[in-house]
Design a protein that fits this description.
Chain lengths: 479, 204
């Protein structure tokens, strides 16, 4: 092998994954906007089954979580694990297989959802052939990632890698256990669990998909890219490690808060609530670590539009991780459960935290990958305000709708009869849904601006070949 | 440094925010003077408007029939609202002073209190929407005033605390994080109280 091929970071696969991630963001957010319009004007499904809410909604969620989210996580994991280990990717061909096979799974999986194939497990809707394919590709992802760590030249395993590692291991465990099923045909299977057990396993999966993918994975992104952009070390490395273990230990118990007042044992519900509240501590430890890291790097804000996204994403991360434990209290949950407040909560995390930190990372990474300046800082700044406005509007609309629904559903008159009919209450939600539609359009518009901006940045340019630097013997693995 | 607060601080801040923050940056007001001469009068507005609106018309949450609360219950809710706003203002000012250290500002507490009062003013004025107690109308009115308040926050912090704009931006974002948490706490707290039987009659 030539000297060049062994001494250069593999970055082409990183930029390809980022491109796929942005495509999925646009497609899945557009689906979300269409869905929110359907809630106001139900007839715009035009009588087509595949355009109906029930089929388009899992496409929206799967497209965001697995298309946009996982592609971004794979890209940033591949990028940062090489830099923090001072080696090339282990099994680079396998990394390329991960990249393309994953897109194929999301694409065909999305089509299968539109065709009406659905296990009816939320965020695990894909049928068994896709589940097996996901497992295989996930194992490939694990081989590339942990192989790189195993061959590292730096002694310490940097904190971001702990989070990415937890993402890979825990998601594998959750995905396999929750999707155990008995296939009856190529397109239909029955879950191995029944009744209340099925619900508990499903929400153990569902909540920890939020925990280890949308929180843990993206914290890995934060721990690598925030200090990089701020050009400062993490404020407290010790705190980050303590928070990692506290987070990993407590998150896994929190799932039952999705099942308050349901047919599962009360002690399981209480345990879920208690662990959800404890979870606030590691979540906020991480937020404080991020905010303190960036607080001394304020001069960077003058030139770097990306940092703004990351700063704000931490504020929304703080909101979402506080709101969640609070909604896990039974006395709040009795009003908030099944209302649009839950949708608002999910989006304060998904738009405010996941999307913003990813946008910030992309604005940082893409120009560096191709060795050019960002095409337009002005567009990036516009995107920032659109993302903020869209998120705020979305949250406000869903708070209003959710509180109204919770109150009206539970309102009783003097003789204890329900005061309002469900149908009337839902019919009166149209104005809130209108606001949400506008919010979604603004947020999608911002994402489209970013797509254009990054496309123009990359256009006609090659990925820069970055040499692996020499390892300082003080930090190297003794060989 | 002057200890005299510009008497028309609240009015001038509505049409000349930058100049008001400039004045504030040179002032060293007493927190008590700010609280009792300015803040408290703004804080009394939302519960007052809410009481008048809800007792005359009942809250419209979207359904045809408005939700009417008993008078005693309404008084209790309005007093609770006022108390939460006072606590909210003071804690925000305390947190602002505490955070300021990280961002290189050392303004006295009175200035933080004045700053937060000015930032919250558009929201206090917008609470006139409570006179028409429809949740949707209130949200429609609150959104632009919230944008205005956030503009004042991002604009005001660097000027009034005399720190570079970039540091101000970071501090304002941290405060936004706190305010979002405070807002959602208010929602959660209300729901807990409703479940306990304070406020609307719920079948829980």
């Amino acid at each position: 092998m030539s000297e060049e091929s062994t001494n250069i970071y593999h970055d082409k696969v990183v930029i390809r994954l980022i491109q796929f991630s942005i495509i999925w963001a646009l497609a899945a957010m557009a689906a979300g906007v269409y869905l929110s319009a359907e809630l106001i004007w139900p007839t715009i499904d035009l009588g087509q089954f595949w355009l109906s809410f029930g089929r388009l909604r899992p496409l929206h969620t799967n497209g965001i979580v697995f298309g946009f989210g996982v592609s971004a996580l794979m890209a940033t994991a591949f990028y940062s694990v090489q830099r923090t280990s001072h080696v090339q990717l282990f099994a680079p061909k396998l990394a390329w297989i991960c990249c393309y096979a994953w897109q194929l799974i999301v694409l065909t999986g999305g089509l299968s959802l539109l065709a009406g194939l659905n296990t009816s497990k939320e965020y695990a809707e894909l049928e068994w052939p896709w589940d097996i394919a996901i497992t295989i590709i996930w194992v490939c992802f694990a081989i590339v990632f942990f192989g790189t760590i195993a061959t590292r030249k730096i002694k310490q395993i940097y904190i971001s890698n702990w989070f990415y590692g937890a993402l890979i291991i825990v998601i594998a465990m959750l995905h396999i256990v929750n999707n155990l099923a008995l296939p009856v045909s190529m397109t239909k299977s029955y879950s191995l669990y029944a009744g209340a057990q099925d619900a508990v396993v499903q929400w153990w999966y569902g909540h920890n998909a939020v925990g280890f993918l949308l929180t843990g994975g993206f914290l890995g992104m934060m721990y690598y890219f925030l200090p990089k952009q701020a050009e400062r070390p993490i404020w407290s490395y010790r705190l980050s490690v303590v928070a990692f273990w506290a987070f990993t230990y407590s998150y896994i118990w929190a799932g039952p808060h999705h099942l308050h007042y349901n047919a599962i044992p009360e002690w399981v519900q209480s345990l879920g609530m208690v662990m959800s509240v404890i979870l606030l501590a590691p979540s906020w430890a991480t937020m404080i670590n991020g905010i303190m890291t960036v607080s001394t790097a304020w001069e960077k804000l003058k030139t770097d539009p990306a940092l703004k996204f990351i700063v704000l994403s931490l504020a929304f991360y703080g909101l979402a991780t506080f709101e969640g434990p609070m909604m896990a209290f039974p006395s709040v949950n009795v009003v908030s459960h099944f209302t649009d407040w839950t949708i608002g909560h999910v989006h304060s995390g998904a738009l405010g935290w996941n999307a913003m930190i990813t946008y910030g990372t992309f604005y940082f990474l893409v120009p560096r990958l191709v060795g050019a300046d960002l095409y337009s800082v002005r567009l990036a700044n516009m995107h920032f305000w659109m993302a903020l406005a869209g998120t705020m509007l979305y949250i406000m609309a869903m708070w209003g709708a959710g509180v109204s629904q919770g109150l009206l559903w539970l309102s009783v008159d003097e003789i204890g009869e329900l005061s309002f009919g469900f149908r009337d209450i839902m019919a009166s939600m149209a104005p809130f849904y209108g606001l949400r539609l506008i919010a979604g359009l603004i947020f999608l518009g911002g994402t489209a601006l970013m797509a254009f901006n990054l496309f123009m940045t990359v256009r006609g340019r090659e990925v820069v070949k970055v040499k692996i630097p020499a390892v300082d013997p003080a930090y190297g693995v003794a060989s | 440094m002057s200890t005299q607060v510009y008497s028309f601080l609240l009015f001038k801040s509505l049409y000349q925010p930058a100049a008001t923050f400039e004045t504030l940056s040179k002032a060293n007001p007493s927190p008590f003077a700010i609280l009792f001469r300015y803040s408290i009068w703004l804080l009394v507005l939302p519960p007052l408007f809410a009481f008048i609106g809800a007792s005359n018309f009942g809250w419209r949450l979207g359904a045809d029939e408005p939700l009417v609360l008993a008078r005693e219950s309404l008084i209790l809710v309005s007093l609770g609202y006022f108390w939460v706003l006072v606590v909210g203002l003071l804690t925000t000012a305390i947190i602002s002073e505490w955070m300021a250290d990280t961002y290189g500002a050392d303004a006295p507490f009175g200035r933080h209190l004045a700053l937060i009062t000015i930032v919250g003013e558009p929201l206090a004025i917008a609470s006139a929407a409570h006179l028409y107690p429809s949740v949707f109308v209130n949200i429609l009115v609150i959104i632009p005033s919230l944008i205005w308040a956030m503009y004042l926050l991002y604009k005001g912090i660097p000027i009034a605390l005399d720190i570079p704009p970039e540091r101000g931006m970071l501090m304002a974002s941290s405060l936004v994080g706190w305010l979002l948490v405070a807002a959602v706490s208010l929602l959660g707290l209300s729901m807990m109280l409703w479940t306990l039987g304070v406020g609307p009659l719920l079948g829980v």
